[in-house]
Amino acid sequence: MRRSFLTLSGLALMASTAALASDASHHWSYVGEGGPSHWAELDSAFANCARGKAQSPIDIRTTELHGQSLPALEFDYRPSRLHITDNGHSIQIDVDPGSSLRIGDDTYQLVQFHFHHPSEERINGQSSDMDAHLVHRDFQGRLAVVAVQLKVGQPNSTVDALWNHLPKEKEHRIDFNDVTVNAAALLPAGHGYFTYTGSLTTPPCSEGVRWIVMKSPSTLSKAEIATFASHYPNDARPVQQLNGRQVLVTN
Q1: 2-250 topology per CATH
Q2: Under 8 Å between Cβ of 26 and 88
Q3: What is the DSSP string of 91-154?
Q4: Cβ neighbour number for residue 28 with a 10 Å cutoff
Q5: Residue 39 · residue 50 · CB < 8 Å
Q6: Cα–Cα distance between 87 and 66 in angstroms, integer?
Q7: Which phi-psi region, left, alpha or beta, contains residue 15 (left: φ > 0; alpha: ψ -120 to 50)?
Q8: Contact indicator for 205, 53 with CB cutoff of 8 Å
Q9: Alpha carbon distance 73, 180 (integer Å)
Q10: Distance CA 55, CA 245 (A)
Q11: How many helices, marked H, and strands, marked E, lie in the chain?
Q12: Are 19 and 113 in contact (CB under 8 A)?
């Protein structure tokens, strides 16, 4: 899979590391005339949103997959001061340098994570209550996104802390030097995964993103999910055509 990754343009990289959910114009949305079916019409830089052949998210059909001997995911996440933004499309947490993900010979640094309601990825046609996208970048600027399905269940103290510090203004980052968070709290106990090459799920929909979709979900309480949904009741792009791409899964 490594050879199929593309080096993202500066615009795509800016979009991904600033939010995977925001661009300078801020005129796209998830509904109406600015919604996903119109993204490509809003700006010539968004052409991939309609013309791209390797778009994300996708519906993963497990009955069509066979287990593979894939590299283990080696997460080395460290506590970070809380840097939180309501970017107008999601709640985003920027991460201090030092957290990383190693997949075989490839190492990526965790840049930020954010949330979608409902989940963007589907498994066998079913979405989850929410998902978290953990955005990583390697030294060449290539992106790897870990998607964690979030379902109603036990509360997550880290997410609860995030919601207790939600900004009151959009597009204004707040830094809390006395509050730390660790993205490891979002990861499920099992690290089996699906993987494929896709795109940003927001404009400019640039392709060449390495997607890691965790097989097992994590949980949030019903109240924690409701808190996010009160801000963003639907910030999920519809699933896209696979167009012959290969999806691999760990044994």
Answers
A1: Carbonic Anhydrase II (3.10.200)
A2: yes
A3: EEEE--TT-EEEETTEEEEEEEEEEESS-SSEETTB--SEEEEEEEE-TTS-EEEEEEEEEESS
A4: 23
A5: yes
A6: 39
A7: alpha
A8: no
A9: 24
A10: 10
A11: 5, 15
A12: no
Q: Are 76 and 228 in contact (CB under 8 A)?
A: no
The pair of structure tokens assigned to 138 is 């390697």
Domain boundaries, the chain: 2-250
DSSP 8-state secondary structure symbol assigned to residue 18:
H
Single-letter code of the amino acid located at 245: R
Instruction: Judge if the upstream peptide bond of residue 36 is cis by omega within 30 degrees of 0.
Output: no
Local confidence pLDDT in tens for the 251 residues of the chain: 333 333 443 334 434 433 443 444 458 999 999 999 999 999 999 999 999 999 999 999 999 999 999 999 999 999 999 999 999 999 999 999 999 999 999 999 999 999 999 999 999 999 999 999 999 999 999 999 999 999 999 999 999 999 999 999 999 999 999 999 999 999 999 999 999 999 999 999 999 999 999 999 999 999 999 999 999 999 999 999 999 999 999 99
Token digits of residue 177: 């030097």
Convert 30-72 into a string of H (helix), E (strand) and C (coil): CCHHHCHHHHHHHCHHHCHHHHCCCCCCCEECHHHCCEECCCC
Sign of the alpha-carbon dihedral angle for 240, 234, 134, 94: positive
